[in-house]
């Protein structure tokens, strides 16, 4: 899941979700797939993860949520979608 998210493979993310792979699993640095997708500004992967219920508030080992790594422009776009009712997440 982490590799698919980091590479922006939203279809692979969706397939893994359908196979019940955890969307909020952590790697050794505490990163979730959403953290990695955000680091690479992979909007489609982020969207797929958020729609699958990924928790945008989970913090990595250093205390950063995925939104910290995402460009402001991309985050604003995702929040606009959320406000339209397509994605459930928040940013603090």
Automatic annotation (TrEMBL):
ANK repeats lie at residues 1-28, 29-61. SMART domains: ANK (SM00248). InterPro entries: Ankyrin_rpt, Ankyrin_rpt-contain_sf. Keywords: ANK repeat, Repeat. Pfam families: Ank_2. It comes from the Eukaryota. This is Ankyrin repeat-containing protein. It comes from Ectocarpus siliculosus.
């Amino acid at each position: 899941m982490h590799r698919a998210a980091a590479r922006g493979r939203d279809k692979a993310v969706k397939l893994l979700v359908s196979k019940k792979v955890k969307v909020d699993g952590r790697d050794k640095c505490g990163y979730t797939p959403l953290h990695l997708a955000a680091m690479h500004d992979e909007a489609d992967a982020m969207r797929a993860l958020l729609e699958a219920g990924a928790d945008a508030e989970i913090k990595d080992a250093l205390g950063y949520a995925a939104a910290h790594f995402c460009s402001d422009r991309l985050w604003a776009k995702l929040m606009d979608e959320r406000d339209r009712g397509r994605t459930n997440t928040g940013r603090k």
